[in-house]
Design a protein that fits this description.
single chain, alpha/beta, Rossmann fold, 2 domains, 8-stranded mixed sheet, 16 helices, globular, disordered N terminus
Length: about 550
């Protein structure tokens, strides 16, 4: 009797297992079928705005200068593209074509498409309508368009493009609206004051007219690394407040940081007001990353330390690296690093040096402490690699590196007082970052020696007269307050300076002598004149070989001071 019951129970158990197996198999099969069907639906993205959406002052032939984006000069045959670009003389696709540069100009859609298609199986299509020098308050006004009447123009382009899909019975869905605009509204007092209100209305009317109430918008930040981020700081800030107000209150609108991306080098002093080629390519990656996060794609591969490199209770020398464009490594790329003779080893992660970072004003942060290695957001790196290796070759001590940068800031943003642009006030975040790095090391049982702050002087500040004039005083203020806030009155600062901009508009301000003067009065301030860096072919920015050399110069300066 008991054996019979046990046999029945076993058969019931086997049946349940089989049922569950087929249930799960069927569910998996159903989900796979749905996913396969979904991958046949064309995902449509709309790109719109003014000159920094057009791609003004970029050049297709310059793409080869930036290895992470190599190949984007060619058409992307798997991506449909419909466009109307320009003001008086409009360039039109007149239907769908392969995605490609238009009129020798690089737009963000090129790098966006490549990044997205690398991570999803569904086909994508891009509709682009953009024109330089246009206003949200006037040209793009959905209720009363003026000037170039961009809103009805863009709506007509989108509807005609989608109608072609309908005629050919091609299934599609509108996935996102990428918007970059606002610079021209800051020149009109009414438009500037009402930018947030106008943007909220703009989004609402698009959702209504496209019959897409859940349409997601990606709002690109205005680039503060340009000259306008300096001489028009209050106006830029006013536009940013309007953008932030909308992206904070609208759950389907996301603020996309772009103030840290590359900016074109102009004539004269070098400052520019357009992203140019590199910035446009990075601009597109920013939009792609934001969209991919929206659909749940995890992009950043973990680089965490597999084992802690220091013995518990041992002393660790902590080096703080800080600065702007070149400390961030704007134009230093891993592909070029691998071709530098004798420097190939810098490509390999160094598990013996713990590395913590916040770059682009927090645009990309380390997950705690990682292995020292290339960590830029766009396949780039800073002087930390050669800095760490040079120290490691000469010291028997344990070392850790913490790097804090924001290339979209100027020195005023690093002062204790900051400016009226409160969102750009980076000093409190910088101090908090250092305190956090020390605390995390101590929590792991290390004795921490804060060896110093290695700061590369603001490059843009050297090219704008009012900022260059005040650079030394602002630096001095930052150093003095940091020592007080960190409770280390003898904290050493190693301040490196590349050759300041040589132009008649700013050369009368002898900023090098001013920095040397405050260093002479401060025994714990070391002024490093990095005037012989390799390969600075353009004003303001240092390329790959020069960034490697800068790291070595910083490390050797420390070793000489020991």
């Amino acid at each position: 009797m008991i054996r019979t019951l046990l046999n029945k129970a076993q058969r019931m158990h086997d049946f349940c297992k089989t049922f569950v197996f087929f249930l799960l198999f069927g569910l998996a099969f159903y989900e796979a079928a749905v996913a396969a069907e979904d991958d046949k639906i064309v995902r449509v993205f709309i790109f719109a705005g003014q000159s920094n959406m057009v791609g003004s002052d970029s050049k297709v032939q310059d793409i080869k200068r930036f290895p992470p984006f190599s190949g984007l000069e060619n058409a992307q045959s798997g991506v449909r593209f419909s466009y109307c670009i320009g003001r008086e003389n409009k360039m039109k696709s007149d239907g769908w074509v392969d995605l490609q540069p238009v009129n020798n100009v690089v737009g963000p859609e090129l790098s966006f498409a490549r990044k997205v298609t690398q991570h999803i199986d569904a086909p994508i299509a891009i509709i682009k309508c953009a024109a330089g020098g246009t206003h949200l308050g006037g040209d793009w006004n959905p209720d009363d368009p003026e000037g170039f009447k961009m809103y009805p123009l863009a709506l007509d382009l989108i509807q005609l493009s989608l109608a072609e899909f309908d005629r050919k019975e091609i299934p599609y869905c509108i996935e996102g609206f990428m918007w970059h605009q606002g610079e021209n509204d800051m020149f009109n007092a009414e438009y500037m004051a009402n930018y947030g209100v106008n943007l909220k209305n703009f989004l609402a009317k698009w959702r209504r007219d496209l019959k897409e109430p859940e349409l997601k918008f990606y709002i690109g930040e205005l680039c503060t690394k340009t000259i306008w981020g300096m001489d028009l700081r209050p106006r830029m800030y006013a536009i940013s407040l309007g953008q932030r107000a909308v992206t904070t209150s609208d759950l389907l609108a996301e603020y996309i940081p772009t103030s840290h991306v590359g900016v074109e080098i102009g004539g004269g002093v070098g400052l520019h007001y357009h992203y140019g080629t590199l910035g446009q390519l990075e601009h597109g990656v920013n939009y792609a990353d934001a969209y991919l996060r929206t659909i749940g794609k995890q992009l950043n591969k973990p680089r965490k330390l597999t084992s802690w490199p220091y013995e518990k209770g041992s002393e660790v020398k902590l080096f703080i690296l800080a600065g702007h464009r070149n400390m961030e490594g704007e134009r230093a790329f891993v592909q070029q690093l691998g071709k530098l003779e004798g420097k190939e080893s810098l490509l390999n992660d160094n598990a013996k040096i713990a590395f913590k970072y916040s770059i682009g004003g927090g645009f990309k942060k380390s997950d705690g402490w990682e292995r020292l290695g290339p960590a830029g957001a766009y396949g780039n790196f800073g002087p930390e690699l050669s800095f760490g290796q040079t120290l490691q070759d000469e010291l028997s001590d344990s070392i850790a590196i913490a790097k804090f940068t924001h290339s979209g800031t100027q020195i005023i943003d690093w002062t204790p007082e900051g400016s009226m642009a409160k969102s750009r006030h980076i000093y409190p975040h910088f101090i908090a970052f250092i305190k956090e790095a020390i605390a995390e090391l101590e929590e792991r049982g290390q004795q921490v020696e804060l060896t110093g702050v290695f700061y590369h002087l603001g490059e843009n500040d050297m090219s704008f007269g009012p900022y260059r004039k005040d650079a030394a005083a602002r630096l001095q203020s930052m150093i003095a307050q940091s020592r007080e806030d960190l409770g280390r009155m003898g904290l050493k600062w190693y301040v490196s300076q590349q050759p300041p901009t040589d132009d008649e508009r700013v050369s009368s301000i002898d900023v090098t002598s001013q920095i040397a003067e405050i260093a002479a009065a401060d025994t714990d301030l070391i002024h490093i004149k990095a005037f012989d860096l390799t390969g600075q072919s353009q004003k303001l920015v240092i390329a790959t070989a020069g960034i490697v050399q800068l790291g070595e110069v910083l490390a050797k300066s420390y070793l000489e001071q020991k």
